[in-house]
Each structure stands twice: as structure tokens, then as C-alpha cells.
Design a protein that fits this description.
- Helix content is about 35%, strand content about 30%.
- The protein has two helices and eleven strands, in the order H-E-E-E-E-E-E-E-E-E-E-E-H.
- A hairpin with a 2-residue loop joins strand 5 and strand 6.
- The longest helix is centred in the last third of the chain and has 64 residues.
Length: about 250
């Protein structure tokens, strides 16, 4: 009797360990390539795993936060997917590069034109976005994932302080501190061009200096050559005169 109870207890305990140690279900997430600095631009990837064994993901809809509108959103082509960018008018216009923007992107939708994301795989959907807001530390996107069996999963729940992660959390993009460079990698290219320009100027100055040095050396050599000739002629003349004096004597 005791042995049976011990065995049963062991089975329950083992089952509990398996449940607690099992992998958490993956969810739609967003990560920047590099950093996403406030006030700047960034390339971000929405990572979408397929969590079904017998259905493929055929559609992804990303809704942008209305409280922090983004004027510039450009998708990168993804093989096997069609993309649609939806814009809406803003209640309060944005100012971008000295111009007023009356509309912003509110939604981006990818639809598979093939098999989509099959079981056991994931797909990344890249976007170039900006200018990122400077009055918040994060952007919360709401994602809707549709499967080939018409099942819809809404990744729209927000994380609350002090509580466990919700079952279907919304993708959250963390923003880093603002920098002097608001154009991300574009500034790196400018710095590289500036460096190349400085290097070119330095090379030109070096060539000029070298040329001047060469000209100076050539001039010096010529002067010394002329002096040598003059000295030689003077020596010959002196010798001839000395010989004549001896003969007359």
C-alpha cells in the first residue's frame, strides 16, 4: 500500500517537473537591427513563429500605436509574401524635416501568396521606421496572426508591472537614449565619406610637399653643378697662367 502511494506520488512529481520545465510557447516579437534610438530611424524585424502542427501562418497584421504615430514606414520585400501599407489622417499633424505631415502609417499587412510559414518554421518581416518618438521608452505594436485553417491569434495584451507575462503579449520595441545622429547608419556613411575626403586632402598635400621637395632638390643639384663647372674652369685657367709664368722665367 505504501509502495503504491510512493509510486503515485513520484509520478505526479515527475509530471509537475515536466510541465514546469517545458519550453514556453513562442510569440510574435519585434527587435531592432542594432539600436532604436529616440528621435532617429531604425530597421526592425517582426519575428513570427508558427505554433501549429497542422496549419501554416498565411497572414500577419501589425497595428501601429496611435499615440506615437510614425510618418515614415517602409517594408523590405519578403519572398512569398505581398505587403500592404495603410495610412490614416492625423488629428495633429507631425513635423518632419521642416515639413508638416498630415498622415501616418497605422497598419502593415503581409499576406502569403504561397505556403506561408509552415509548421516548425518562423519568418522575419523587416520594416524601416521613423522618426521614433522622444517622449516614450517603448513602442507597443498589436499583431494579428492568421493561420491556413482560419484560426486567428491576437497578440495584443500589454505587460503590466508586477504581473506575469500575458498569454498573448503584444510585440514591444524598446527605445534607447537619443543620440546626436538621428539617421542611424546614414551618419556612418557620411563619416566614412568625410574620412575619405580628409585622406584624399592629406594625400594631395603630401604629393604637393613631395613635389616641392623634389623641385628644391633638383634646383640645388643644378646650382652645385654650375658651381662645380665654374670652379673647374677657374682651376684650368690658373694652371695655364702658372705654366706661362714659369716659361717666361
Amino acid at each position: 500500500m505504501k509502495a503504491s502511494r510512493i509510486a503515485a506520488t513520484g509520478v505526479v512529481a515527475a509530471s509537475a517537473v515536466l510541465v514546469l520545465s517545458g519550453p514556453a510557447f513562442a510569440h510574435v516579437s519585434v527587435q531592432p537591427e542594432g539600436t532604436a534610438a529616440k528621435g532617429g530611424y531604425a530597421t526592425v524585424n517582426f519575428k513570427v513563429p508558427n505554433e501549429r502542427d497542422k496549419a501554416s501562418t498565411t497572414k500577419l497584421e501589425i497595428n501601429f500605436p496611435a499615440e506615437h504615430p510614425l510618418a515614415s514606414v517602409m517594408p523590405q520585400p519578403v519572398d512569398g509574401w505581398n505587403v500592404k501599407v495603410t495610412k490614416s489622417k492625423l488629428d495633429k499633424p507631425l513635423e518632419m524635416h521642416g515639413e508638416k505631415i498630415n498622415e501616418a502609417v497605422t497598419k502593415v499587412t503581409w499576406t502569403a501568396d504561397g505556403k506561408g510559414i509552415q509548421p516548425g518554421f518562423f519568418q522575419k518581416f523587416p520594416l524601416s521606421i521613423g522618426a521614433l518618438p522622444e517622449d516614450t521608452d517603448e513602442l507597443v505594436f498589436k499583431a494579428i496572426q492568421t493561420y491556413s485553417n482560419n484560426e486567428v491569434v491576437r497578440w495584443i495584451e500589454t505587460q503590466k508591472d508586477g504581473e506575469e507575462e500575458p498569454e498573448t503579449p503584444a510585440p514591444v520595441l524598446a527605445l534607447s537614449a537619443a543620440t546626436d545622429d538621428h539617421h542611424g547608419s546614414a551618419a556612418s556613411d557620411d563619416d566614412a565619406d568625410a574620412k575619405e575626403s580628409d585622406d584624399a586632402k592629406a594625400a594631395a598635400n603630401a604629393s604637393t610637399t613631395e613635389a616641392a621637395s623634389t623641385d628644391s632638390s633638383d634646383t640645388t643639384a643644378r646650382v652645385l653643378g654650375v658651381v662645380g663647372i665654374v670652379v673647374g674652369v677657374a682651376g684650368v685657367a690658373f694652371g695655364v697662367l702658372a705654366g706661362r709664368r714659369r716659361t717666361n722665367a
